[in-house]
Amino acid sequence: MKQLSLTARLSLMFMLAVTGVLGAAGFFFYQMSQHHFDELDRHTLEDKLRAGRELLKGVDDLAQFDTLRPQLQALLGGHSDLVVRIVDANDRLLFAASGATSSAKTHAHGSSDGGVRRETRVWRRKAGVVEVAGKPLSIELAVDITTHKVFLRTLAGWLWGALVLCALLSGVLGWLLARSGLKPLREVTLVAASVSAKSLTERIPTESTPAELQQLVLAFNAMLARLEDAFVRLSNFSADIAHELRTPLSNLMTHTEVVLTRARSREDYQENLYSNLEELRRMARMIDDMLFLAKADNGLIIPEEQSIELHALCQKLLDFYQLTADERGIRFLLSGDAQLRGDPAMLHRALSNLLTNALRYTPDGGTIRLDITATGQNVALSIGNPGASIPEQHLPRLFDRFYRVDPARREGNPNNAGLGLAITHSIIEAHHGEIHCSSRDGWTSFDILFHPRG
C-alpha cells in the first residue's frame, strides 16, 4: 500500500482536528438549544399548573365551579399552543380550553415553515391533582412543541451541512498550509538531489528556515561541509599517492634503462639491482602504511590488551636512538612513569615516529624531553624538542596523510613519505587517546593523553 505524503498526512490531521472541534461545538450548541426549549416548555406547564391549583384551592363547593370558568379561560386558555382539561374522579370533564392553533383531539396537517409536511403534532404533557371541597380534581396540560422540534431538525441539518463544508475547506486550507510550511524540506531535497562531487559547495539558506527545521538544515549543511572536506582530502590523498609512487617508479625505470643501454659487468648489474631493491622496499613500506591507515579508518585496528610500563617502553626507544643522537650531540631526558593497557608493538611504532621527527628537527647539541604524567585514571605523555617553530596554520593538518610543513617534498628520502604522523594519530585513537601538537618560541611538543577504556 502506497504511503501518504507528509503534506497529505498533515492536511488530513488538520482537517480531522478542525472537523472534530467544529463537530463538538455544533453538538454542544444543539444540546444547549434543545435544553433551552425543554426548559421553556417545562416552565410553561409548571407555571400554568401552579396557577390553576391556586385558583381552584379557593373553591369550597363544586357548585361554584361555573363561576370560575371565565377566570380559568383567561388564565389557561390564553396560550396559543396550550391544551387544558380538568376532570373529576369519575373522569367527567369539568373544563377544557385549547389555543387558537392547537387541538388535543385532532391531528394537525399542513406544511411547516421548513417545507416538511407534518402528519401529527408533538406534545409535552403534565398533570396534577388538586382537592376542591374534599374531592380530587385532575388538571391535565399539554403544550404543542412541534415548532421547536421542526426548528431543532432544521438546525441539525444546517449544522451537518456546515460541518461537511468546513471539513472540505479545512482540508484544502490544511493542504495549502502544509505545502507552504514544508517548503524548506523541498529545498533540502533539491539541494540533496543536486549534490555531486562538483557541487559540494551548495548550502541551504537558513534565513527563511522555520525554527523547527533549523537543526535539520544546520545538520545537513554540516554534513555537506564534512563531505566537501573529506572529498578534498581524498583528492589530495590520491594526488599525493600518485606523486609518492611516481618517484620510486621513475627511479626504477631510469636505472633499468641506463643499464640496458649497453652490456655491463656483473658488478654493475648487482649495483643496479641493489638500487632497485631500495626503491622497491620504499614502495613496500608506503603500501604497508597506507593499508594500515585504511584499516584504521574502518575500525579494523584492534590493539592487544597488555599491561605496559610506559617508562620502560620509552627507555627502550631512547636506547635504540641513542647512537644517532650521540653523533649529533643530542641528549634525551626522560621523567615520570605510568602504566596503561594497550598494544606494545603499536605504541612502540607510534612513539618511534614521534622520536624520529624530533631527532630530524632538533639542532645539534639540543635536548629532547619525554615527560610521563599520571593524572587520576588518565596517562599523559609529552615529547618535546627545540627547533624552528611550526607556523600555527599548519598545526591542525600535521596528522593528515602526506602533509608536510615544508612544501619541498624531499623526493627520494625513504624516511619522509609523510605518513608517520597519520599512523601515530590512528594508533593513539585506537588506544582511546588523543594527540595534539603545540609549537611556539622555538619549542615543539607533541602531547598525548590516554583515557581509561570504558
Describe the model.
By secondary structure, this protein is of the alpha+beta class. The protein has three domains: 6-103 and 118-178, Beta-Lactamase (2-Layer Sandwich), CATH 3.30.450; 211-297, Helix Hairpins (Orthogonal Bundle), CATH 1.10.287; 306-450, Histidine kinase-like ATPase, C-terminal domain (Heat Shock Protein 90, 2-Layer Sandwich). Helices cover 52% and strands 17% of the residues. The protein has nine helices and eleven strands. It has a five-stranded mixed beta sheet with strand order 6-8-9-11-10, covered by helices on one side. Strands 2-1-4-3 form a four-stranded antiparallel beta sheet, covered by helices on one side. Strand 8 (367-375) and strand 9 form a beta hairpin. The longest helix has 52 residues, at 6-57. The chain starts with 5 loop residues before the first helix and ends with a strand. The relative contact order is 0.07. Residues 100-119 and 408-414 have low confidence and may be disordered.
